Amino acid sequence: MLCWYNFKVFFNRFQFILSNSAKNISQTRMSRKNKVATVTIALIDATIDDKLRFLQCRFRLGVEKCKSKVVKSNSPKVKWQELFNLNMYEDQFMLETTLLDKDGFLGRNLLDLSALEKEKTHQLKLDIEGDVADVKIFILLTISGTPLLNTVTELEDVNNAQKILEVKEENNSTEVGWLSVIVFGAKGLCAQDCYCVLKLINNRLQTHTEYKTCDPSWMKIFTFEITDITSTLEISIVDEKKVEEVGKIYVPLFRIKNGVKVWYALKDHTQRERAKGNNPRILLEMRTSWHLTRAAIRMVNPKETDLLATNVKVDRRLFARNINRARVVTKWTLDTLKLIKTCFEWESRKSNVTALIIWIIFCYFFKIWMLPLLLLIPFIKYRPQKYVLINFYATLLFHLLVSSRFS
């Protein structure tokens, strides 16, 4: 029995060593392969029968895998609205999409990515072949982040891009116009290994990743089709390791200055404060070319909806906070009206004489255009402490303390 136990322990250790060596070999093989591009998949929805199901979608590209959340639904249209990024390596161009239910496998689809155009967002409806008939998955797929495609190295590349933009505008008969963006680089970022993502409604492109530097130089040029001239270009810089945004800006298409290099200061996700880092900024050069008549006609039609935008649910805490704020403002307004009323009822001679003098001076200098300035009174009274230019109370208290100390 003891010999059999020792043999079993030895066999388990030997099997463990072989499994680890196989994993190391596979990892070293993957590290030797070069990354070709980044595949961005926006999983929007799926059409299926009305049966109650717990659906999950999985994507596989070579050894790269990802899966969506499980959605419970009994409607013919199931929505996910999730975003995934998969690395594409050499000789790995087959994207496998699998649809699963709680009970098991429903169907699969194979898509050859080598046949798709790079640096362009494709709207695809994948036919799922399996046990359930007429199942389709709607995705937005983009192959971008290619380091050697659409790079800008010389002035001739910029001029050629401008000529291509003009040719596209002449041959175009359906879209409103075209947008060309040259992403030169960024400085002062708070993280290394960053890439830049550009999004215009449902079109999403990104640069390659610049490793081990806080001042990346991407030198990439991108082209977007403009369907609505009133839309906004969203530019964000993402840290590849932490998968979080380092900085973001929004540029309305109306405010673009054609052919001018501009440094844009990066902000955080709230767009109220500066992003972290040493004066983080990004250098861009943009050009827009659009048809006036088609843009005016497009303004009458409904705007193109963002397929990844979700309906914001009502936050009870935020709603209660706004109600309390409205109560405070209403109470302050009523107290102010009562104070004004008591100032003119001659209950106190000092307050009434002071109010009368202020009223006479106000009527003497008041003009109609000064009326909106009265709305600044509540903002001045309830201003945050950090936005005070001169804190008179603190200054007065400081002088009193200094005078009392020396006296």
From TrEMBL:
<dbReference type="GO" id="GO:0030672">
    <property type="term" value="C:synaptic vesicle membrane"/>
</dbReference>
<dbReference type="InterPro" id="IPR035892">
    <property type="entry name" value="C2_domain_sf"/>
</dbReference>
<dbReference type="GO" id="GO:0005509">
    <property type="term" value="F:calcium ion binding"/>
</dbReference>
<keyword id="KW-0812">Transmembrane</keyword>
<keyword id="KW-0479">Metal-binding</keyword>
<feature type="domain" description="C2">
    <location>
        <begin position="38"/>
        <end position="125"/>
    </location>
</feature>
<dbReference type="GO" id="GO:0046928">
    <property type="term" value="P:regulation of neurotransmitter secretion"/>
</dbReference>
<feature type="transmembrane region" description="Helical">
    <location>
        <begin position="387"/>
        <end position="406"/>
    </location>
</feature>
<dbReference type="InterPro" id="IPR000008">
    <property type="entry name" value="C2_dom"/>
</dbReference>
<dbReference type="Pfam" id="PF00168">
    <property type="entry name" value="C2"/>
</dbReference>
<protein>
    <recommendedName>
        <fullName>C2 domain-containing protein</fullName>
    </recommendedName>
</protein>
<keyword id="KW-1133">Transmembrane helix</keyword>
<keyword id="KW-0106">Calcium</keyword>
<feature type="transmembrane region" description="Helical">
    <location>
        <begin position="356"/>
        <end position="380"/>
    </location>
</feature>
<feature type="domain" description="C2">
    <location>
        <begin position="178"/>
        <end position="265"/>
    </location>
</feature>
<keyword id="KW-0472">Membrane</keyword>
